Amino acid sequence: MRPRGTVAPELAALGDATRGAIARLLLEADDHALTVGRLTEALALRQPTVSHHLRVLHEAGLVEREPRGREVWYSLPETVAARLEEWSPPTGDETIGTELLGRIIDDLGTRFTGTFSRETVQRVVLDSYDLLRARDGAGRALPSATAQFAAERLSAQQSTELEGERPPGAPLEVLFVCVQNAGRSQLAAAIMRHLGGERVRVRTAGSAPIDAIRPAVVTALDEIGVPLGGEFPKPLTDDVVRAADVVVTMGCGDACPVFPGRRYLDWAVADPAGQPLDRVREIRDDIDARVRGLLDELAA
Questions:
Q1: Same domain, 251 and 208
Q2: 3-state secondary structure of 81
Q3: pTM score, whole prediction
């Protein structure tokens, strides 16, 4: 039996956040059917982006496509809708199960063999799990989020242990921090990864993170060809700050701990929360210019 909150293998195409959101909207709609236009409006994404994800779902047999007059409707087959209704994602008040947590610990123990003991890995995994559960709206994709968050923290600790022994050409570590880790810091990190490539290792965090990146931020990045990948809001922890060469804060005040030897920058950037897409584009362009300037400084 699968742990509660994990999706069936045949529904694997729903692992992408946008496709998962499409499935939820279809599940909640009358007759489990909507048009591309209505999905585009609900998701605040561009129509080509939504059409791409619908095509993936259609090819996987998870949605059906039916022309009705001048419109094309997409719907969930009855069998798929039934499986999704059976799938009950965990909420912030639930656990993801000791067996699943044990697997995450074992997997990361294998990944960091020779670097950290199993006890250290277990401590970081359990602490990461507790921090993510405390987020506003926590619960969505909690198992995979726990694994990714713990892996990033262990990687940061590994970098800190190597401080002073980094090989020539090792990437500089940059941390972007804002309040909810759902807007400004995610915009900056995505653009930095896109432009910096192997020259930088980028992390993000929030002083009061929420459960998901804002759809308008995803749209604004997509418009300039910058991928967001599997990022999600994460709490601010000391280990990622210690690992950073440069820490860039945006609107989070004194929440970020200060450690010697790090460069700290505070960018006065507007918050995209609740802003229309045109305003989010302006914020994106402001951050883009700042990131390019920082990359030039780091290269020099």
A1: yes
A2: helix
A3: 0.68
